[in-house]
Amino acid sequence: MSADEHDKNDSEDQGLPDSGHHLSEEEVERALASFEAEFDEGQNQADQPVEHSASGMDDEAGLDSAPTDESSVEPDGADGVAADFDQELEGLIGNRAKAAVMVTRLASAELLAAFCQISDISAWCIQAREGAVAVLRNLDGDGPEAAIRDLTTVVSGLSAILAVNRADKLEVTLWISGQSGQTLAPPILFAATADFVEDLMIGTTTVDRLRQDGAAIFDSGEYNREKAMGIIASHTRFGAGGSTRKGRVE
Fold this sequence. Notes:
This protein is of the alpha+beta class. Helix content is about 50%, strand content about 15%. The strands form two sheets. A seven-stranded antiparallel sheet has the order 7-6-5-1-3-2-8, sandwiched between helices. A two-stranded antiparallel ribbon has the order 4-9. Strand 6 (about 170-175) and strand 7 form a beta hairpin. Helix 5 (about 110-120) crosses helix 10 (about 225-240). The longest helix has 23 residues, at about 25-45.
C-alpha cells in the first residue's frame, strides 16, 4: 500500500474528510519558520518597557526619594498670623501699645495731618467737632510719647493730650512744648471728646471702620513737606479751618 493510500485509509478510519491536499516537508518547514519568527517578535515587544508606565514609576520614585518636610512648609498666611501673634503678645506685656491717639483742639484734621508730616509722625488724622484726633501708627516702646513730644515741640504753643492703651491700662497725659504735664482720668477725656475716641482706645472700632462710616480721615503719609507747608500756610493765612492758638511752626 502506498503512503497516499495509507493516509486516505487513516482519514476514513477517523471519520475525517479528505481535503485532497497534503503539505510537503518544504512547506511545513516554511510554515514553522514563519511561526517562530512571529513568536520571537511578540516576545521582543512584551519584553520592552512601556514608556508611560516607566515615566509614572519615575514620578512616583521621585516623590518617594524627596519627601516633603511638612515642618518646614508654612501654610498660606502663616507669616501674617505669626506677626499678629507677636504684636498681640507685645501688647499683653506692655512692650507695644494696643492703641494711642493724640487729641487736639484743632478744627481741621487736614491741618493736624500736615503738622504730623513736618514732625515726622505717621498717623491717621480724623475730623471731629470736639477737635481733630491723630491715631498713631508707631506703637512700639515709647513711640507714642516720642510722637507727641515732637508735635508739641515743632508746633510751638500747640498743646495736645496723649491717650495710650498698654496692656489694657489707659494712660492720659497733657503735653505742652515737648513736656508731659498733668495726667487725666480716662472718663474725663472721653466725656470731652468724640465717641470714636473711646471706641478706638478700647478696641471696639478701627480707622477702616470709621472711614467706611463716612468719617473724614487724612493720612500724614500721603503728604510731602512742601504740600504740608502749603496746607499750614492756607489755614494760618486765611484762618480757614482751625488754628494753632497763636502757635508757630519751628
